Every structure is written in C-alpha cells, then in structure tokens.
C-alpha cells in the first residue's frame, strides 16, 4: 500500500510509526502505522481512493486539538492535511478558506478586513475542518452562526459535493459529517461589516479572559467533556471535589475543572484513566454521565 501511495504523492510526505503526541495538542499517545500529508485536493483524493481500494482504516486529522490517540497507537493511516489546505481569502463580506486553516488565522483575517462575527471563535485552537465537524463554539457563539456552506469529499475519495448549513445538521458539538464520514475541503463564511478597532479589542478581551480562566500553559484538548443538558461539565467536576485530582502526568486543572491537562509526561492511558475517575465520581454524586468531547481513537 505504501508503494501505491508513493505513486500518488512524494515519499517525503509520508512517515511510518508517526508519534501522534507530536501531532495532537495533548502531546500524548501512541504511534500511527503511517501518516500521510497530501498537499492539495487532488493528492487527498488519490490517497483516499488507494486507502479505500486497500480496505485500510484511516482518519483525517487537522490541527489535532480535539483528538487523543491511545498508547497502543492507531492501526491504519492518519491523513494530515498539508499546507495546500491553509488558504484564506476575503471577498467583500465573505471569507473562503481551506479546511486546514486555523480558526485563529481566519478570525484574524476577518478582523483585518473589518468583518465581525468570528470574535468568539478566535481563541479556539482547532482547524476549520475540525471546527465544522464538531460545530465548535465558545463564549456563546458557534461555527453554524457564520458558516454559509462547505465543500466536501467522500471518505472513499470518489465524490465531491457542496453542503449548505441546513444540510450539515449542525447542533451542539455535532454535524452530519460525524455520520457520513465526508471530509471538509473548504468553507465559506458570511460575516458583517464592523469596526476593525472594536473587533480587535473584543478579540483581545476574550483572549485575556481565556488566559485568566483556562490552563493555556499546559497541553490539553480544551474542554474535555460535552456540556450535559441543564448543567455545566466543569461545575459538576468541581462540585464533585475533583479539582487537582491526578493520574500520572494527567490532572484535572486547578484553574478550570472542565479541562484535563498534561502536567508533564502524561500518557494517553493516564488521561483516559483520569477521565473514567471523573465520570464515575460525577455519576455517583449527581447521576449525570459526562461524555467526552474529545475523540479518542486507537488501541490500548
């Protein structure tokens, strides 16, 4: 299979036994059998078609800010989108960008153009593709509030199509992509004209709030748990007296209880064991089962 892939993209864009700690924000986890970095849509399409024909398990990765790979690694191919998916262009009130572009970069481009609507998303450390996949949100806003449409490719690389926001079934940390497996190639956002200075001041204010209240100096995947209906996950964890509880190098942040952090040398197993301790304690105390927002993949 690697030989077939080398016929499609440069061998320099492939890495065997790729340490996923290097490619995910938790800075923990095992190795993927193979990591491939297609640089454009044609290369991605070719890679996906080979993987489909070979029946090889695979997963597309953006910035890796919401993924944890178990210590046993990933038996298959991680497809990490290359630099050809990072483009951002502004035309009037519309921003078009590749799925590999960082939310922060898109929000900055919007601010520089005097366009408002993405301020609340500016501090999310993910890529556009992952943000659409999860309908990422923060500070009362979500991707769906400003997203107009996306172009996607099917998981087997055979079909390209466009989906508007209605077709994406965007809800709390959910999109239809989680069922279909379609992969975002590009996204288009409709924003509103605003005052550049005010927009940048708002972004700076939200950044300051984030730095004050979130453990940004430690590797993590942001808020680890989804918000249960009628509750706040971090409040449940705090009220269960779990702040500061640790397993190995993993800890429930003492700054924000909704974050599980890598204090240093944490393994994926440490993080998962800590997650289970938190889930069990919150369930016992409040009768609420916390579900991870983080995607956990691979083998023990």
UniProtKB/TrEMBL annotation:
Keyword Cell wall biogenesis/degradation listed: yes
Transmembrane segments: none
InterPro entries for the chain: FAD-bd_PCMH, FAD-bd_PCMH-like_sf, FAD-bd_PCMH_sub1, FAD-bd_PCMH_sub2, MurB, MurB_C, MurB_C_sf, Oxid_FAD_bind_N
Catalytic activity reported: UDP-N-acetyl-alpha-D-muramate + NADP(+) = UDP-N-acetyl-3-O-(1-carboxyvinyl)-alpha-D-glucosamine + NADPH + H(+)
PROSITE patterns: FAD_PCMH
Enzyme Commission code(s) on record: 1.3.1.98
Pathway: Cell wall biogenesis; peptidoglycan biosynthesis
GO CC annotation terms, alphabetical: cytosol
NCBIfam families referenced in this protein's UniProt entry, alphabetically: murB, PRK13905.1
Family: Belongs to the MurB family.
Name the record gives this protein: UDP-N-acetylenolpyruvoylglucosamine reductase
Organism: Lentihominibacter faecis
Highest classification ranks of the organism: Bacteria, Bacillati, Bacillota, Clostridia, Peptostreptococcales
């Amino acid at each position: 299979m690697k030989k077939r892939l080398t016929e499609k993209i440069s061998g320099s864009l492939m890495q065997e036994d790729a340490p996923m700690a290097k490619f995910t924000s938790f800075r923990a986890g095992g190795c993927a059998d193979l990591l491939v970095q297609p640089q454009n849509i044609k290369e991605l399409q070719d890679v996906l078609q080979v993987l489909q024909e070979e029946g090889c398990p695979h997963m597309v990765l953006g910035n890796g800010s919401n993924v944890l790979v178990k210590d046993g690694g990933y038996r298959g191919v991680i497809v990490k989108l290359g630099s050809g998916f990072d483009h951002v262009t502004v035309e009037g009130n519309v921003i078009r960008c590749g799925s590999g572009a960082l939310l922060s970069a898109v929000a900055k481009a919007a601010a520089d153009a005097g366009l408002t609507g993405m301020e609340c998303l500016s501090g999310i450390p993910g890529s556009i593709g992952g943000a659409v996949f999860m309908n990422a949100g923060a500070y009362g806003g979500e991707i769906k509030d400003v997203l107009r449409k996306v172009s996607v490719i099917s998981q087997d690389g055979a079909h390209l199509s466009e989906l508007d926001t209605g077709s994406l079934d965007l809800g709390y940390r959910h999109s239809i992509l989680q069922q279909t497996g379609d992969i975002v190639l590009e996204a288009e956002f409709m924003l509103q004209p605003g005052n550049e200075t005010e927009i940048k001041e708002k972004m700076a204010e939200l950044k300051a709030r984030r730095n004050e209240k979130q453990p940004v100096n430690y590797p993590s995947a942001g808020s680890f748990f989804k918000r249960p209906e009628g509750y706040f996950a971090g409040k449940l964890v705090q009220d269960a007296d779990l702040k500061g509880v640790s397993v190995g190098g993993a800890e429930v942040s003492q700054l924000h209880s909704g974050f599980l952090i890598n204090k240093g040398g944490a393994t994926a197993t440490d993080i998962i064991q800590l997650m289970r301790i938190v889930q069990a304690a919150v369930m016992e105390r409040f009768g609420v089962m916390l579900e991870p927002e983080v995607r956990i993949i691979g083998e023990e």
